[in-house]
């Protein structure tokens, strides 16, 4: 295995460098290595340094008890970021074995009312550290095997630093850091924003997808213009159906209109006939 040079001392003393090596491997391979009698106090700092997307994949492959033990000692923003990217079925299984206080916090950060941005955002969108190089970012995206409309860059507190378009990422030199090519002018939507408020955001003038932040300013996901418009249509209250809206109602209205027209014609005809009769009587 290429991972053999990573001794316990190396993991302890250089968690950042160890993280870079581990996230370059297949998730299953990294998970086997970290689950192999390495203390949680050593594993946790390394997982914390790994980018959230590969960290989620690694933890999915580790034994459930060790995964939960690691998540229980990580900083909350890191836990929330990783759990957001974990497969939903696996996420539910993990939640059942986490401390109740952590579970309650996660539930608050992962669920939103139906009429807010948070309920309609894509919470599986990966994000990347501002210190990551373009080459390493592309390597992670290649493993994800997904297409993304926007690359979200975060700082060390998991707050949104800015965004990068895929085209800008592809034309940048591999050794450049993401912070050097990040557009920090893109303002994130708040997850608890109402849909009408989100529709008016200035960011739509430049981007078809915008990042979303939670109430603690931590990156929560993304939402694109199509999803927002669909959400607004689905959230509109249904108009109450009146008798006039039904086929029977339309037919009834048509019959009434026809009858009224005939009555008017008949009445007009009768009036004309009476006038002519009166005129004939006067002539006699």
UniProtKB/TrEMBL annotation:
Highest taxon listed in the record's lineage: Bacteria
Cross-referenced Pfam families: MgtE_N (PF03448)
Organism annotation: Zhongshania arctica
InterPro entries in alphabetical order: CBS_dom_sf (IPR046342), Mg_transptr_MgtE_intracell_dom (IPR006668), MgtE_transporter (IPR006669)
Name of the protein described by the UniProt record: Magnesium transporter MgtE intracellular domain-containing protein
Domain Magnesium transporter MgtE intracellular: 13-117
